[in-house]
Design brief:
This protein has about 240 residues and is an alpha+beta fold. The protein has helices at about 30-35, 45-55, 125-135, 195-205, 210, and strands spanning about 65-70, 75-80, 100-105, 170, 170-175. Bound molecules: arginine (ARG) and zinc ion (ZN).
Length: about 240
């Protein structure tokens, strides 16, 4: 079976970096005007140079996700892991103060919490960007019939949008169901074996990722249980 349980779970932080309880688990609300930040449109440059360095929490203990009003039509973006030993990745992809994922607020969560219209309202932007943060490349390898260093994701000409199934490019049917394509949220439902293995390698070897395994900021209780949504009934 190609569709994998990746066996990676996250938990909501219960305490802030100095050990105080969070009033909302996992959430730190920041009003940029209260912090004295400049207030231009939310370009990637501004997010990288102003917002992240002034708001990040120690990424050896926290996985930072910035939920903002990104400008320029992006749904989200991520920082790749460093020194993963994996192919298709550089060793240095950025420092601690910018590590994590950025998401457009309209694409976070799913109804009823997410009140925004389809097709990016089912939480798959976070799934996709966390894939990058754990070392996955796009399934088209970011070039025409390119390489994503996963032999079990068929080669694809370029990104797919909507849900074009079946779509044959580069002599194989594109895996439009893969979270690392650009298809609609309700079209995506899988990471493959090779993708799972890359992500699990990153969790075991990459700086900051591996440190999260021993973070105590979620408290001492049992680990979180993911509320996995069953997409198996879905037609493509
Ligand atoms: N970085 C990609 C973008 O901004 C994310 C695509 C996520 N796709 C999705 N169906 N949510 O377009
Ligand atoms: Zn991407």
């Amino acid at each position: 079976v190609l569709q994998q349980n990746c066996e990676i779970q996250f938990c909501l932080a219960l305490e802030d970096p100095i050990g105080n309880p969070l009033s909302e688990p996992g959430i730190d609300r920041v009003r940029r005007q209260d912090k004295g930040f400049s207030s231009p449109a939310w370009s990637i440059n501004y997010i990288e140079n102003v917002i992240k360095p002034n708001t990040f929490w120690d990424p050896n203990r926290y996985f930072n996700i910035w939920v903002v009003d990104i400008s320029g039509g992006y749904l989200g973006y991520a920082q790749f892991p460093n020194n993963s030993t994996l192919g298709c990745l550089n060793n240095n992809n950025g420092g601690a103060s910018t590590d994590g994922v950025v998401l457009l607020y309209q694409s976070v969560g799913r109804p009823p919490a997410n009140p925004y219209p389809p097709p990016y309202n089912l939480g798959r932007t976070a799934t996709h960007e966390v894939g990058h943060w754990l070392g996955l490349r796009h399934i088209w390898g970011d070039s025409n019939c390119g390489n994503d260093c996963c032999g079990d994701t068929p080669t694809a000409l370029t990104a797919n949008f909507g849900c074009p199934y079946p779509q044959t490019t580069c002599s194989s049917v594109d895996m439009v169901q893969n979270y690392m394509d650009y298809t609609d949220d309700n079209c995506m439902n899988l990471f493959t074996v090779n993708q799972k293995n890359r992500m699990r390698t990153v969790m075991q070897v990459s700086p900051r990722r591996v440190d999260l395994l021993s973070s105590t900021v979620c408290g001492s209780g049992p680990p979180p249980t993911s509320d996995f949504y069953d997409w198996s009934h879905k037609h493509l």
